[in-house]
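Sample intake — Transporter
Collected from: Streptomyces vietnamensis
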Amino acid sequence: MSRTNTAQGRTRSAVDGGANRWVVLVVLCVSLLLVALDATILHVAVPSLTEDLRPSSTALLWIVDAYPLVCASLLILFGTLGDRVGRRRILLLGYALFGIASAVAALATEPAVLIGARALLGVGGAMIMPATLSILRTVFPDRRERATAIGVWTATAAIGAATGPVLGGFLVENYWWGSVFLINIPLMALILPLGRRLLPESKGAADGPWDVLGALMAAAGVLGCVLGVKRAGAGDPLLALPTAGPLLLGAALLVLFVRRQKRRPHPLIDLRLFSRAAFTTSVGCIVIGMLALVGLELIAVQYLQLVLGLSPLETGLRLLPLTFAAMAAGATGSYTLRRVGPRRMVGWGFVLTAAAVLLLTLMGQHDRPLLLTVGFVLLGFGLQTTLFSAYESMLSEAPQHSAGGAAAIGETSYQLGAGMGIALLGSVMNAAYAPGLASVPGVPAEASRAAANSLGEAYKVADQLGGTAGEALHQAARHSFVTGLHVTLCVSAGLLLVGALMARRLPEIMECPVDPEAAFDAREARRARPAPEGPDRDAAEPAGSAGSPETAPTAPAELPGASEGHGAAERPGSPGAAGPRVPATREAIEPAGSGRPAH
């Protein structure tokens, strides 16, 4: 119990003595924006980069994948390290490393140098991403304010991911490919001193040594799983050694990591979190949400460029409605969550996204701008609503002393979902696309097999053939791609509806304990205590006791000091240790005798 109280006291002193928490949120969002931009901004620069550096196909694959692979594998390592040595310290080191790696990448003249720079960017990103979320969890102890902050945070991530192709297209068309990295340097030069001055330091539990071996096992396990998933998404056979080997090795290491954490008295990650249905369900919803988003975005970009013939910049502009809708969902997410609760918000967010995906099946071989705009708006709003509520529920289930580990779990699930989306939906797309090119009149079998690899490859083969056969292959490839797109959208809609069913395990209302730390410890103490048998059971759990959260007394959460002062006086083990749960509704927070009528 002293561990939790110490961490809580350290957090409060950091927040009370530091900068205004909303200024802190701005700094955190700017840093997240840079990391999210770098994840997508390179995609439109690949043709220019390939022409300049002449990398091999393998080197080009590593140039693109080194950043997400390294970043995903190190999230747990740096998230838990930040809990021990200080989240602000890890974040500032990440800023510095990110700026240095950006300069090296921008000036690279060899593929190997660019691959190394991209790997260093991944290390910097792994330092920044969980630190921003865990500091946010610490700076905003009140759940209502934290929900607003998470809405801004998730909207910022969506803005960065969607703005990357637009900004990258503009820079590549007007400058050179290295400029997509160079823009990071002045921003990092600005945010590093600002972060050092404004961000409060916070730590979690410091009991026992940091489990270095466990952190490396987690990093290697996640790396193996993500690498295997990415190879499967690139079209490699699932049972082939380059795909199955990393997957099996990564899964085995993660199993050993979990067993190791269960045996250790001071684990890296508090595995009790996964015994909470809300936490586990939130993580699963993040995976499904990212699986749908990244897979659909990849296919949508190919459709806009290869079927409709839009330029990279025009493609990025067509995706902007999705970004604006995500911003709107983030801005209104806190209000919506208080009114409808996590269960309905996540569930209906998935349903709205599935409806948007099914609407997009009306896309054909000709441009329909209005349909695409409406579909992207619904898709962005629905999916961002889901991700916002899932992240908020996940963080609210984690105590402050393990915020870094919880944030790392959320970000790792984010990355795994993205990789699985490319692999799964890409495989569905390829399976539906290839059969349409098996017997095109006048096209040799060898040319048909080459064209079945991708739509871009089909266009190259069609140009080489020329004449009537080339035109027939070109039309057949377009038609097969649109057919595969429709099949993939239907599969994606089905996965989203599965997510809507999963959301039924989330809490129905947004509960706000007066003292979240004491409430978490009290819940775990009740879970560990054996339930009384027979007639003593009723006597052991009197009505209104801490063991019955459903009947716990409520307090006016809006009163001054309700989120800190009152909770600090109720130590774990006292009658009020579980913390009064306050539903975030007007009826619950209205003080008695206020004169305002009930609703």
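Post-analysis note: The longest strand covers residues 511-513.
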